[in-house]
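Much of what follows relies on a compact textual record of a protein's fold. Each token is a code from a learned vocabulary of local backbone shapes. The record below shows the convention in full.
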Amino acid sequence: MNVNFTGKANFGPFVASYRAHPELISGLKERGLKGVPGSGNQDLAGIIKDQRGYSMEDKHWFCKEFQPYITDYSKRDADFRMQDWANNWTDKFNLMSLWINYMKPNEYNPNHTHNGQLTWVIYLETPNEEELEKERAAYKGRSFGPGGICFHYGEPTFPEWNVHTFGYVPKVGEMWIFPAMLRHEVIPFTASGVRISVSGNLYFKNPDEESSPIPMRMDAENHR
């Protein structure tokens, strides 16, 4: 008998990975150094001592550099939901906030969500890979393990009939874009070095408008 497969249900949120272009990585790193250490802490969930906002000038630059990724994500998200992107979809956005994290050993980000519609994380630098691999190999617990980022959707079940957690060990230059309300967390590590990452929030706007930032408390220029 021939099995007649007619399609599948696209269930759950669309989480996409990309490799960021070198100019985006270097630009975010250089511009982030200009911010005041800890200036973004009051607005963020991380147990991290140094989280900084970016200036409005930096955010205008970021919108232009980041636009191709949001265009691609928006179109792929429409396909994921089996919808026509040209019908009532947009790739133009208001950048609500943008910040850089300097995550050191034993710091972490607890399980949390973001504001807006979409969020992302871009990795600019990671701790010593050899040390982290040894740390992860020595770990005997049930979680994803040291240094991982985990996305959580839905509730765990037993017996397990669905996958509700996805874990990943960040690499330099890689990026994740995902719905802002998707729960996620970053597990601490003890390896030497700093994990530098950039995140932010956006919401979509009229497709006839240009993507642009909006003033928020975390503009680095307000903390200088």
About this structure: Confidence is low (pLDDT under 50) at residues 218-224. The chain is about 20% helix and 25% strand. The two ends are 71 Å apart (CA to CA).
